[in-house]
């Protein structure tokens, strides 16, 4: 099974367990780090995430996976919050960030730049609208976006204006 399809398989299996504990599974990775494999779950809730929340979800997911045993190799289970600069990967992540600051990294340069920050004004599965510091609104195709993240207010770097 390919890594990506294994991640999708695990996410579909684990998401209901996480949701049953009152949290959202925002992302999941299954990767080799050194000699060990890591299954990392990123959870969120409207009230935020504490260490106790991570421990609770880890316990429930661990019990579930021990019973199902869907992973052939040994692995380390980690549960974390997505952080304030969480990656935006799913439609609902982008929808939740409308009128918020985000950072975009493109596969190929647009007007000589690959990185943009601004306010997400609109989103569809095909395109998004990003208002940059100059007031210009960029219409970007989702297929051209390599990575997108929410930007914490303290880390927001306005784009330089041309004068």
UniProtKB/TrEMBL annotation:
It is found in: Cytoplasm. Residues 88-149 form the Ribosome maturation factor RimP C-terminal domain. InterPro entries: Ribosome_maturation_RimP, RimP_C, RimP_C_sf, RimP_N, RimP_N_sf. The keyword Cytoplasm applies. Keywords: Cytoplasm, Ribosome biogenesis. It comes from the Bacteria. Pfam families: DUF150_C, RimP_N. Residues 13-85 form the Ribosome maturation factor RimP N-terminal domain. Required for maturation of 30S ribosomal subunits. Belongs to the RimP family. This is Ribosome maturation factor RimP. The lineage of its organism: Bacteria, Bacillati, Bacillota, Clostridia, Eubacteriales. The gene is rimP.
């Amino acid at each position: 099974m390919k890594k990506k399809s294994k991640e999708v398989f695990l996410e579909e299996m684990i998401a209901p367990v996480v949701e049953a504990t009152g949290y959202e599974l925002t992302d999941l990775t299954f990767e080799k780090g050194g000699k060990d494999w890591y299954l990392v779950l990123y959870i969120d809730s409207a009230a935020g995430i504490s260490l106790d929340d991570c421990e609770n979800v880890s316990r429930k997911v661990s019990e579930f996976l021990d019973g199902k045993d869907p992973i052939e190799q040994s692995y380390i289970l980690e549960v974390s919050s997505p952080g304030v600069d969480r990656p935006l990967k799913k439609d609902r992540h982008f929808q939740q960030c409308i009128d918020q600051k985000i950072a975009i990294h493109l596969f190929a340069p647009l007007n000589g730049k690959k990185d943009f920050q601004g306010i997400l004004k609109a989103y569809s599965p095909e395109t998004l609208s990003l208002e940059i510091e100059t007031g210009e609104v960029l219409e970007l195709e989702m297929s051209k976006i390599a990575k997108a993240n929410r930007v914490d207010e303290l880390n927001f770097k306005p784009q330089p204006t041309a004068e």
